[in-house]
Amino acid sequence: MAVYNIKQAKPAPIKNSGIIYWMKENLFSTPVDIIQSLIVISFLIWSITGFLDWAVFNATFSGSIKTDAVGTGANWIFIKEKIGMFTYGFYPENQLYRINIVFSLFFVTVILFKYVANTLKQRIFIFLAYPVISFFLISGGYFGLETVSTDKWGGLLLTLVIASVGITLSIPFGIMLAFGRQSKLPIIKNLSVLYIEFIRAVPLITMLFMGSVLLPLFFQEGVELDKLLRALIVITMVESAFISEAVRGGLQAITRGQYEAADSLGLGYWQKMILVILPQALKVAIPNIVGISIELFKDTSLVMIIGLFDLLSMVHLTSNDSNWLGMETEGYVFVTFVYFIFCYGMSKYSMILEDRFNTNNR
Amino acid sequence: MSILNNKLFRDIVSQLIVVIGLVFFIWTITSNLQHNVDSRGITTGFDFFAHTAGFGISESPIFYDDESTYFRAFLVGVSNTLIVSAVGIFFATIIGLIVGIARLSKNFIVSKLALAYIEFFRNIPLLLQILFWYNVVLATLPNPRGSIELIFNSFLNNRGLYVPKALFENGFLIIFIAIILAIIISIFISKRAKHKFEETGKETTVYPAILAVMIGLPLLAYNLSGGGLSFDNPHLQGFNFKGGMNFSPEFLALSFALSVYTASLIAEAIRSGIESVPTGQKEAAASLGLNSFKSLKLVVLPQAIRIAVPPIIGQYLNLIKNSSLATAIGYPDIVTVFSGTVLNQTGQAIEIIAVTMGVYLTISLSVSVLLNIVNKKLEIKGR
Fold first, then answer.
1. Are B161 and B133 spatial neighbours (Cβ–Cβ below 8 Å)?
2. Distance from A180 to chain B by nearest Cα, in Å?
3. Which domains can be identified in chain B, with CATH numbers?
4. Nearest CA of chain B to the CA of A358: how many Å?
5. Half-sphere exposure of B322 (CA within 13 A, CB side)
6. pLDDT tens digits, one per residue of A295-330
7. A148-357 architecture in CATH?
């Protein structure tokens, strides 16, 4: 006769969810882990509380002159009072509405581009119309608008102008250079390679120096080149070379079969490149192009060295105001924040684009 | 078929058009240049190199004074560029390696801190970082009298960092030979251990032996030679420090910002290199019974390095180019000294810009030659 032994019930499985389990698994699993976590956590507490004390708890937010500051922390009155300088530079105050229209038109353009325009033609039209309208609004001189010379442009406005002109112009030039580098014609190919490699080897700052010192010598006597225009020419020259390398990466990802298929359909060189190859190549290259655009956005700060008043140079300029001496820290922190928002936003956007264009893994 | 449809004809004509356009462009530019140079009375040629420069340079690794020539000033600029780049590359690699590995840590908070470091520093203009360290952090340090005392008799104040200077005496030769000897012996030990492993499959732990040799031999030589090495410690005299070695605030701000910024990009390269190794490789290593350290050293890293090294060398090149931002804070690198002061004094813009670009072109070409050699070395060896 069989004997039945009652087995003890098994213990409940170890809970593998919830915050305690998560912390055990991810923060305190081994002794080394525990030490690392504790060091990092104490560093974070020390640095974050230190920063918050300075930036929030001991900071001054209200007031209108420097001596209104009450705490030992940051004096944000400075930023509040100088926000106009940081955004518009020396742009005449009664004309600021024009810049505001340009800024708000940007959002209108994005909405039109994304939701209203249906055909490619409409999109290209909107894409081209915005910069033209913006140019007339900012510089004036037509339609009864007062002319504002470029030395009055400054701050974030100038940074955005340089970045957007640089990006928009260098994309077509970059594509042409990439075509040139991939071309079978030896002269065109070697000239493109020479140009791209030369530009990529030389620091932007020496190119900007060249622009401000040498460029005027290259033109006929009497041709006055605007300082901003010189910077824009140089930046477009440089960025085209970088963009072309990104586009080349995309072109190399296209299989030979695509070229052969286009050839067998009887398409000419330009039809083949523009209708068949380029759309596929750009799909691959766009994340890198956005990456280069971020680099360009950061590099616009170099124009400060050749004497243009971009966002970064505003820190120096505003904190040299005799009413606001010694406010550099606040200025730098604020400008850091603005640059970070733009660059980080663009890099996140490029990740979204990468996902959207990633049609191969569907 | 008309000749217009002939491919060869079209190729030749389109290239001819480009060449003619280019020649016309260059001809216009040079004739304008010639005209402008003549009408403004700008002297040309490279004679100015031999003239006396007559301006001071705040720091120079080679001998330089007011009597020196422009060529000497040029050399000072080039060597300062190379020094700050070398220091930047050294520290950027170390920080980048630490952050890159921390990014892959299983510890949640360590990896997120590394991510925050990477995202923060690479999304802010380098020039802003340099100016921040220079104008905000270093400028607000106390004056020499209230210097912050660091370890090893070093002092930090608003005039820079003062560290003890190593003075080499005759006995130092013995120590130097001992160090060389220690390196040779270490290589020998590890070679023999590897040989033994390949012969018998038995492993020997070589690290204690190598460590003993590397520390022991120089220490022994130091004691035998009666101390060929002494230190000149910086000390406060009047309002400033005397003795020791001084690193200027410009140098500190520039090298620090360059290292911190480039480290964030190197860390990304290292991370993507390690992540590019398929999981199957790690699983295969584990199923062969390798522990996690060995699987990293023998399986993952050799494959990760192949992916990570080319972008890292590219970042080194970027760092060298970015060192030209020195001109914003007045560190006497090639751009500040040569394209700045020398250009203002001589007014010979064409020659000076061309020479400056030539220097950077030479550096870039050397780096790409190096990159090609490295790529050859890392290439998967075909059988």
1. no
2. 11
3. 70-139+248-378 (1.10.3720.10), 166-232 (no CATH)
4. 18
5. 28
6. 899 999 999 888 888 888 888 888 887 777 778 888
7. Orthogonal Bundle (1.10)
Mean pLDDT within B265-291: 89
Question: Using CA atoms, how far apart are residues A304 and B367, in angstroms rounded to an integer?
Answer: 29
Tokens standing for A39? Answer: 């060091």
Helix (H) or strand (E) holding B371: helix B349-378
Domain ranges, ordered by start, for chain A: 148-357
Cα–Cα distance measured from residue A232 to residue A153, given in angstroms and rounded to the nearest whole number: 14
In this prediction the ipTM stands at 0.86
Set of chain B residues whose Cβ sits within 8 Å of the Cβ of A234: none
CB B89 within 8 Å of CB B319: yes
- State the number of CA atoms in the 13 A half-sphere of B17 facing the CB: 6
Q: For position B68, what pLDDT does the model report? A: 79
CB atoms within 10 A of CB A82: 22
Touching check for A45 and chain B: CB below 8 Å? no
Q: Which of residues 234-293 of A touch B (CB under 8 A)?
A: none
Q: Answer whether A26 touches B (CB < 8 Å).
A: yes
Tell which B residues from 16 to 35 touch A, by Cβ distance under 8 Å: 18-19, 22, 29, 32-33, 35
User: B234-269, pLDDT tens digit by residue?
Assistant: 777 777 777 777 888 889 999 999 999 999 999 999
Is the pTM value of this prediction over 0.90? Answer: no
